[in-house]
Amino acid sequence: MSLAVVNETTMTTFVEDRKAFENCVEECFEMLDVDGDRVLSRSELREGFCKIMSLGHESREEEKIDHLFNTIFNRFDEDRNGSIDPQEFRCLIRELMFAMGRGFGSSPVLVVLEIDSLLMKAVEHEFGRI
Asked: Which parts of the sequence belong to the EF-hand domain (predicted)?
């Protein structure tokens, strides 16, 4: 884990750098796609999602977690095949990164980040490391 200062600009500049963002999203997708079938099942997405989004590992109510993933699949599984393909995953992550940026706003916020998270990638991008 690492500490970093982020704000909305950290997120938006990362997402708007299409090449860097898509490379990082593809890397995360491959990390989550445990069986290598180029789609993410609910269980694959659920297993790795908290890590790549730096959401922590504290226990949560199963009902709330189920609701979150039902919402994700209802919104982003465009072909309704019960899995998330790379394009759907890219759209999901793009929307989440912009939402987090809006949540941070323009004031700097100190956050604890997982080393392999997309938030860490955004920070590294901001400092020219990726």
From this structure: 20-55, 64-99
